[in-house]
Amino acid sequence: MSKLREAIISNCEKNFLLKCLKENTRLDGRSFDEFRNIKIEFGKDYGCCCVYLGETKVLAQVTGEIQIPKSSRPSEGILNINVELNPIAAPNFDPSSKNDLFTQLNRTLEKCIKDSKAIDLESLCIKMSEKVWALRVDVNVLNHMGNILDCASIAALTALCHYRRPDVTCDGEVSIIHRFDQRDPIPIVVHHYPVCITYSIFERGQFILADPTLLEEGVADSFLNVSMNAYKELCGLHLGGKAELDIDVMIKITQKVGKRAVIVVEQIKRALELENSRRSKKESIGFHNLVSNSNEIDDNFERCFDSWRITPYKKKHSSNNYDSPQLGIQENKSDKMEQRGMGSAVLIPQGFEEVNKDWGGNSEDDDADVVEIPREIPSVSLVDSDSEEETTIVLNAKEQTKKKWKK
Amino acid sequence: MIESSITTNRMDTSNIFEKELDLRCQFNILTRPNGSVIYCEGETTVIAGIYGPVNCKMSKMLSDKAYIEMNYRPKAGVPSVQDRFYEDIIKNTCETALAGALYPRASVIITVQEMHDDGQLISCAINAACLACLDSGIDMRFIFASISCFLTKDGNLHLETPNSKNDIQAVFVFVFDSVKGDVIVSHTEGVYSIDNYKQGLKISREGSKQVFKFMEQEMARRMKQENTS
Q1: In Å, how far is B15's CA from the nearest CA of chain A?
Q2: Contact state of B73 with A301 under an 8 Å Cβ cutoff
Q3: Taking 60 as the threshold, does the pLDDT of residue A304 lie above it?
Q4: How do strand A174-177 and strand B157-158 relate by DSSP bridges?
Q5: How high is the pLDDT of residue A98?
Q6: Which of B127, B125, B108, B105 is nearest to B116 (CA)?
Q7: For residues A308, A312, A317 and A319, what is the CA-based torsion angle, rounded to 10 degrees?
Q8: DSSP category for residue B223
Q9: Which residues form the Exoribonuclease phosphorolytic domain (chain A) (predicted)?
Q10: Model confidence over B80-115: pLDDT tens digits?
Q11: Contacts of A124 (CB under 8 A, 6+ apart)
Q12: Which CATH superfamily is domain A11-297 in?
């Protein structure tokens, strides 16, 4: 069933992409070893960040609670990483059913961050075999445009570095959790910064593309996820798909990953530094700051709705005059915008008043904010000989040509 | 006692209307969904996205209208009972507002993702769902606007989250439709009197006009951008 909702890749697309690769180009104009831009934004809560990798977007949040440790490791805290394939990211993602992609992402990320011992779990212990901090990293995929894993690994790592846990003091049997205003929160100890980097492999290793997009992921024979930290130490390796790979290709990719990992980690550290300095200056932080709130509309309201509705649909595709400001002004001359009650407006073309009366009465007792625009406009303006619409000119031209024919 | 509290309320309402709500939104922030929006009320932020109409599961298919798959995702952890409850509120609202009968045997996927909660989460999520629907251009019977009204312990009503959250005694959430301004959803939390509720409804109705106006402006700007680009 969910297959139907997937973005299907046609043979045309596939062949075109492969043809482009043979000519050393990618569809988005990147070179083979080029990555998409990384952008990191932070939320107001500690441990909350939003990471963009090109158009792929991921939201990560770290939460902590106090739990009983595992009996096998009584002095270690607990770290859980959970990637959620949010149905906002793609229509075929279903939160209730766990598919292969879900399992693979979770396991690879766990290998990258947890199994590489990047986080110091011993420091999360409050009391041996009784109380430890259990951290949970929730990674929500918001927009799937290929290469979720790289994006998710950056987000998870950044969120962990950004997270602050409340201070806990032990007083004999009683342990007190201090609020943030009582004692400064404590950051988590991060030993090293491992990130996942993905390469797609085409035509048995003939073409190797860094940071594949959704289409490239679909066409590729196989993919290689390499987790590496800034010291170029390998933390994980996952080869999926069905390509035969030479050892030297593998080594070549790993060397490339090393260079890239340094850049990515540098970028993460810079973003965190910037964020910390903003927090210490007590600037307003949070996602709401990233959305502009200019209340005035750049151009006046009427013009906007005029050009939206009056222009006949045919013109939208055929003529370039559509965008020209001259046309808009001409339309404004012939038409009127009239306010009817609170928050509603009527667009009246010349010689149109009589038709309006029928439905105009309704809007007075409404709080309606829908701007209702009579549907008859195009036909009326066609009949109206005074109108300066282009279509009428065309009609006249036809008549003229007809007259010419008669002559 | 009740008398005095009402008079203080009335005094307070005049202040409320002068204050403009801090609303922000940005359309088309995600490339995959058919319609998407990031919407903020004060500091509360959510992202909403809509796909549809798309192919429907056989088990969920409705022969007379579209099935609405509503997903409300909390920022952290698995969705709790509370989140399911919010999901249901938004779903019911969208079901009444969307012209589902136009798409029988299909489904519409609406997802709301919490980004930051500062108290107005439900109203923010509902408004975001409406804006996402508008952005996608799916057929609707009417648009809807939601507003949260906070009753503090001193008996005052606020349309914005009070600074100290411990003072909140009750929260009213109302959703109004755009055609007649009727209430479609009423959700309350906490302890309050009938008078408080009526007063809250009155203030919320006034406040909702601001939200409708905001939606209209934002849509106008979006149309403008679409035409010029």
Answers
A1: 21
A2: no
A3: no
A4: unpaired
A5: 82
A6: B125
A7: -100
A8: H
A9: 34-166, 192-252
A10: 999 999 999 999 999 999 999 999 999 999 999 999
A11: A76, A77, A78, A132, A133, A135, A165, A188
A12: GHMP Kinase, N-terminal domain (3.30.230.70)
Low-confidence stretches of chain B (pLDDT beneath 70): 1-18, 229
Domain locations in chain A as residue ranges = 11-297, 308-373, 376-407
Task: Give chain B positions within 8 Å (CB) of A63.
Answer: 76-77
Q: Do B116 and A61 touch (CB under 8 A)?
A: no
The predicted pLDDT at position A308 comes to: 46
| Cβ separation A305–B36 shorter than 8 A | no
B165 touches chain A (CB under 8 A): no
Nearest CB neighbour to B179, from listed A140, A291, A368: A368
Q: Mutate which of B29, B115, B179, B228 to disrupt the A interface (most A C-beta within 10 Å)? A: B115
Record the tokens describing residue B115, joined without a space.
């980004």
CATH class of segment(s) B23-228: alpha beta
Secondary structure element (H or E) that encloses residue A197, with its range: strand A195-202
Question: Measured between CA atoms, how close is B208 to chain A, in angstroms?
Answer: 10
Interchain CB contact of B43 with A (< 8 Å): yes
Kindly report the pTM of this predicted structure. 0.78
CA nearest B141 in A: which residue?
A370
